[in-house]
Structure prediction request, 199 residues.
Amino acid sequence: MAQPRGVRRGLPLLAALVVAGCGETPLATALSGARPLAVAAAPIAGPVLRVAGASRPLTFALVQEQGDWRLWRAGGGAALATQGPRIVATAGLGPGLAATRHEGTDPLADPRTLRTGPATSRRSIDLRGAGDDPAGMRFGVALTCELTTAPDVGWLVVTERCAGPGLAFENRFVAEAATGQVRRSRQWIGDIVLEVEGP
Prediction:
């Protein structure tokens, strides 16, 4: 039986996150926040994410890319996984987002489609507690989110309001009106909210 389109789109990310839990792979090391024993290769020259909201401002360099999925590293063992403009997993930033699974297509894949009206999306997330203690993990937290947009002189400002069991938060994404490319965002990742600029 053919898999639904949303499941097919999520397979590369799911596979990457599963591989991250399988021993000593570069992705596992990056998402665990652990420092590798050997000296790691230099990050790929190119895009960076400038991030505020953590204990200090951080610049994340792109180290791996597959389709719209990207892995970013910063100093001190911090790492982000993104899918399109959305942060889907973190490491080295304290308690927070460990994994994200979307149902169907993420409306942020092209924010310009939101000009015709609000969209609803569903996803489930895993949350990591303090100190990576398994007892503090929450798996499969179901979220329902409503996304709306407002034009702002050459930009689209997308507001995403999400709610789930014991959770309610708001994200904001600023995209170029002409291309739909997200350039800035404010994203909830658990205990903190990150302000992201780039790439």
